[in-house]
Specification:
This protein starts with 6 loop residues before the first strand and ends with a helix. The chain has a domain at 125-295: Neuraminidase (6 Propeller). The protein contains two helices and 21 strands. Strands 5, 6, 7, 8 and 9 form a five-stranded antiparallel beta sheet that branches. Strands 1-3-2-4 form a four-stranded antiparallel beta sheet, with no helix packed on it. It has helices at 75-78, 279-295, and strands at residues 7-12, 25-33, 39-46, 68-70, 84-88, 91-100, 103-112, 115-116, 120-123, 128-136, 143-150, 155-161, 172-173, 181-189, 192-199, 209-217, 220-229, 238-242, 245-253, 256-261, 272-275. The protein is mainly β.
Length: 296
Amino acid sequence: MNSIRRIVETVVLSGMLVALSPTPVWAEIGVYVQPNGSSSTYALQGIVDDPEPVGIAWIRYFSDSPQRSVLNDQGSANGDGRPSLIMRSTLPIVAWARNSPAGYDIVVSRFQGGSWTVPQTVADSSADELDPVLVLDAGDGSIHLLYWVLDATPRVMHRQAPADLSSWSVAVQVSQPGEIACRPSGVIHEGVLQVVYEVHPLGYGSTPRQIVLAAQDGQEFSSEMLAATQHDGDNWPQVHSTRHELWIDWIDTQCDLGWTQRQPGGSWAPVQIEYFETPEERDYRVRQQVRILVLE
């Protein structure tokens, strides 16, 4: 297992989260309650090449104190998967794959009333549910949950909850029937949930692979293939939306980031490749460079 290459503390003040890495491996996540009663959410994050950073994603850094409320402080020892964190108003919501003797299940916790809620199991089955991604719809406050199921035919799934998280919808398959799909990422673009994921047509772990984007249409998803890659490591495709621009990037080789953007009329630009030397350069510089190019 590779060690954490870089650790960054991200502090959320007044509900504003500055995310420095699109695919971070979170370490300690907590809320610091100040003497005046106000609070700040913080998270420690780093970059690793290991696709399954068990024992790293929940490393505990600070000791207990009356002011500090740490989420899932036994997550590292338990072997839990990497979490996804979003902010709704000034309060954090976190999802992760929790390990148990029966496998991995997706759980969700939020900071409410001065403490973290007991993790709610949202997705569980006899197979492993992995790599959850939370997406906030700023329009109505609803929460979308994306994850993938690792079984004989890996597939990407979606659930949704209203703003108060009072209930979760039944699971809907995002990937197409028979598609071997994994590692989703999502964003709300002009009011529509867009989900990007990897497809392994010749079997899970094989190459070539496809980068596929699916758009929510009512209770279903329609998809299109955007690119193919021979990279046999995890591709971790990411979808982004800013100023009416929509673009996707992914790890295309050990030293290349592939990307494309949607053009006026709905077509997609030819795939472009950006070189990087280290995971830090890829996630902290090159992905930001792509963003600048898209918004020019």
